[in-house]
Amino acid sequence: MKAMGKTRRLIAMGLCGAAVTAALAAPTAQAAPDASAGPEGRSASWSLTDTGTTARFRGLAAVSRSSAWVAGSKGTVLRTSDGGRHWRDVSPPGAAELEFRDIEAFDSRRAVVLAIGEGEASRVFRTADGGATWTESFRNTDARAFYDCLTFFDHRHGLAMSDPVDGKFRILSTDDGGRSWKVLPPAGMPAAQPGEAGFAASGQCLVSSGPKDVWLATGGAATARVLHSGDRGLTWTATDSTIPAGDPARGVFGVAFRDRTHGIAVGGDYRADQQSPKSSAVTADGGRGWQQSATTPPAYRSGVAWLPHSRSGALTVGPTGTDLTLDGGRTWRTVDTGSYDTVDCTADFGCWASGEKGRVAVLTPSGG
Length: 368
What we know:
Radius of gyration: 19 Å
Largest sheet: 8 strands, antiparallel
Mean pLDDT: 90
Oligomer: single chain
Structural class: mainly beta
């Protein structure tokens, strides 16, 4: 009875998985809000919220349809609990010189945020009271390390990754919700290629699914790769993707897995004057093999997320727009031309996107 009641409530809100997918898939005037007419007169589109800042938010943690956190430039962290109608500045004190690029939230009160950069610029902060207070739980003291992304398997176990040190990607681990961190032994990490690194562009160069599986996305070297670990970062295998690299600006920028086998990778060349003809790829075997999408997004994309409770629907975002797939990443179609860096969706059918100039948007239904 409980499950039936929840389903009825979601259908009443017009946001069940099939409705979200169908509404997004409907023909749309790309730059016009509320232009995609879905079944029964419903539609869905990005609705920008007023964040009151010009910070660039590459870090996004969607908790629910009403609750989300964003983290970005100038040490800025914002939180909303009313669907984006109001945002509260909960930035850590003294962090204005830091660049936050990833944030992971367990709920509306507990979150962990990563600042990137060489040496001591890479730091991790944690809050347990909605951002009223923060504790710095890690500060990098190795000048050779540069941390890019973090992920959590559950409310206790998580990882953060650094660009290669001594020829291998470095992995930090926590088993107490981000209160403390330790560097994992490098023995299980394959050698990095010359010039290989992660991209701190969307908080999605390190992602997890389930209790132990995690993937690390790379670029900058001769080949763009996706590394996989099935034991929370102790041992890894590396697989070439189909997304081109061969330049410090090219590679895999973000990955998303809806379970431990089905994943999507997006990327390309982030320079606006360069083409990205092979900007997405898919896997159905946990990343052991990748296939280029038959129809890729028209330009570089940095963030990707599966639509809630969908086996085939996903969104990808970048500076030139949002694209939708209805077949698990094999083909894509542009549905919006606004600029976003990252996207995240929640189990209660909420989807959020964030990016430059303080842009944060929520996917909302319209019509009736």
